[in-house]
């Protein structure tokens, strides 16, 4: 981990300094102007009343981020999670070719759905993604075939805003195997997303993933696939985002196909701004991992959050999980978030 951080500092320092000899003062000023450091931590408590009852304090994320501005149009970015021994989340460089066209290369969030590209620091739910997004984007390991990749992958992305930000687009070619690993087959994933903003308070989106996966584990929802099998791994999603002063609402319908197994689900998450710093959260979240066998679950979430400092908050939430397979369960959760 120390070697990784040292390499990052050296990398940003080398990129930030001009080619010619400069004074120490000028070098320090250059670093201040071109490098910005930030981070956040999320820690909390969870009580689970399922068969194996559990309650535990936990540290969910300890994130360090560095952004380097090499030139006016050229930048680089680094994100590292110190939890559980450390893991590299993102490292990429991007270049703005035109006001409407930016090219990115490296490891970063997969631009699928409205929810997956969001930072956990702004998501309303303590568990972050809805069931469908977590499974289909591979953010939490709920799909054993793909594993836990925090919704990220490695590849090339072009994105931009057009028509005075009326339309935003993302198109990428990615490995399709997740983070910190090489591709395990010769097929690349195609990822696309378009967001249309017809009104200041309304955004409508559509996104897709078209590719081939390589199974890294067995899945109860897809028992035909064995470890090492290459399989069709396609997804699509359609959703809308409403942002007003009294309430924010995000909703999507998503479907996936893994081999011959089809999955699908939808969610609706609302955030009501009751007081300037106090919000009420409610969410309905349904997902079916295998439509042929009704491998489904519905989550009902209610909670509150208080922003006690810019980008810092405390949250409390109750979740009832209605399981079609297995017993229902309830979760009580609290979380503290600090960010700098």
Overall number of domains:
1
CATH topology annotation: Porin
Distance between the termini: 21 Å
Order of strands across the main sheet: 1-2-3-4-5-6-7-8-9-10-11-12-13-14-15-16
* The CATH top-level class label: Mainly Beta
**Overall outline:** globular
Q: Report Rg.
A: 21 Å
List low-pLDDT spans. Answer: none
Strand content: over 45%
Largest sheet: 16 strands, antiparallel, barrel
**Helix/strand order:** HHEEEEEHEEEEEEEEEEE
Assign a percent range to the helix content. under 10%
Q: In DSSP terms, counting alpha (H) and pi (I) runs of 4 or more, how many helices? A: 3
Total count of strands: 16
Overall mean pLDDT stands at 93
CATH homologous superfamily identity:
Porin
- Classify the secondary structure makeup into a structural class: mainly beta
Q: So, CATH architecture? A: Beta Barrel
Q: Which labels suit this protein?
A:
10% helix, 3 helices, Porin, 340 residues, globular, 16-stranded antiparallel barrel, mainly beta
What does this structure look like?
With 340 residues, the protein is mainly beta. It has a single domain (2-339), classed as Porin, CATH 2.40.160. It is 10% helix and 56% strand. The protein has helices at 2-16, 24-34, 131-137, and strands spanning 35-48, 54-69, 74-81, 87-98, 101-109, 152-162, 167-174, 189-199, 202-214, 230-243, 247-258, 261-275, 278-288, 296-309, 312-323, 329-339. A 16-stranded antiparallel beta barrel has the order 1-2-3-4-5-6-7-8-9-10-11-12-13-14-15-16. A hairpin with a 2-residue loop joins strand 11 (247-258) and strand 12. The radius of gyration is 21 Å and the shape is globular. The two termini are 21 Å apart. The model has no long low-confidence stretch (mean pLDDT 93).
């Amino acid at each position: 981990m120390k070697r990784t951080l040292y390499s990052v500092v050296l990398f940003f320092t080398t990129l930030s300094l001009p080619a010619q000899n400069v004074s120490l003062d000028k070098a320090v000023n250059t670093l201040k102007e071109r490098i910005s450091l930030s981070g956040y931590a999320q820690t909390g408590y969870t009580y689970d009343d399922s068969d194996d009852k559990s309650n535990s304090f936990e540290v969910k994320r300890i994130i360090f981020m560095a952004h380097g501005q090499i030139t006016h149009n050229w930048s680089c970015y680094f994100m590292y999670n110190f939890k559980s021994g450390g893991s590299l989340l993102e490292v990429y460089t991007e270049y703005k070719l035109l006001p409407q066209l930016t090219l990115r290369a490296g490891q970063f969030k997969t631009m699928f759905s409205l929810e997956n590209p969001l930072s956990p620091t702004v998501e309303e739910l303590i568990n972050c993604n809805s069931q469908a997004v977590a499974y289909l984007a591979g953010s939490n390991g709920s799909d054993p075939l793909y594993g836990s990749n925090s919704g990220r992958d490695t590849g090339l992305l072009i994105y931009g805003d057009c028509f005075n930000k009326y339309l935003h687009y993302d198109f990428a070619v990615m490995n399709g195997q997740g983070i910190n690993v090489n591709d395990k087959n010769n097929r690349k994933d195609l990822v696309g997303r378009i967001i249309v903003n017809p009104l200041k308070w309304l955004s409508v989106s559509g996104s897709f993933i078209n590719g081939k996966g390589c199974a890294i584990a067995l899945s109860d929802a897809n028992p035909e696939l064995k470890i090492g099998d290459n399989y069709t791994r396609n997804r699509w999603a359609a959703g809308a985002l409403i942002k007003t002063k009294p309430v924010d609402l995000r909703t999507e319908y998503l479907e996936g196909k893994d081999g011959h197994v089809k999955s699908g689900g939808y969610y609706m998450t609302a955030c009501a701004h009751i007081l300037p710093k106090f919000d009420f959260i409610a969410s309905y979240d349904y997902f079916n991992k295998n439509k042929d066998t009704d491998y489904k679950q519905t989550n009902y979430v209610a909670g509150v959050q208080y922003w006690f400092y810019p980008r810092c908050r405390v949250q409390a939430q109750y979740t009832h999980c209605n399981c079609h397979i297995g017993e229902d369960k309830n979760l009580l959760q609290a979380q503290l978030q600090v960010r700098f």
